[in-house]
Amino acid sequence: MLTGKQKRFLRSLAHHLNPIFQVGKGGVNANMVKQIGEALEARELIKVSVLQNCEYSKDEVAEQLASGANAEVVQIIGNTIVLYKESVENKQIRLP
């Protein structure tokens, strides 16, 4: 689990990122979780936007993505979810 200080640090890093995935009407599927897992391995910190037509709440989507990709939800702001997962081979972010 991330501490408050670590989440604040990650939020500041995520501020400038653009969402690279969108969750729409179909919700979360296995293929999306796999792709998000790969993106997290490459980048460690990503944003996912939840579209208006999504049938699930953004909290449910965040929970599904985080548990499926074995990641941490840093923040849910508006319709955007910020996810973090420490990379195994491509570590770039040093947490405080």
UniProtKB/TrEMBL annotation:
Keywords: RNA-binding
Species annotation: Calidifontibacillus erzurumensis
Gene3D superfamilies according to UniProt: YhbY-like
CRM domain mapped to chain residues: 1-96
SMART domains: CRS1_YhbY
Protein name stated in the entry: Ribosome assembly RNA-binding protein YhbY
Top-level taxonomic group: Bacteria
The keyword Transmembrane helix is annotated on this UniProt entry: no
PANTHER family: RNA-BINDING PROTEIN YHBY
GO molecular function, one term: RNA binding
Pfam families: CRS1_YhbY
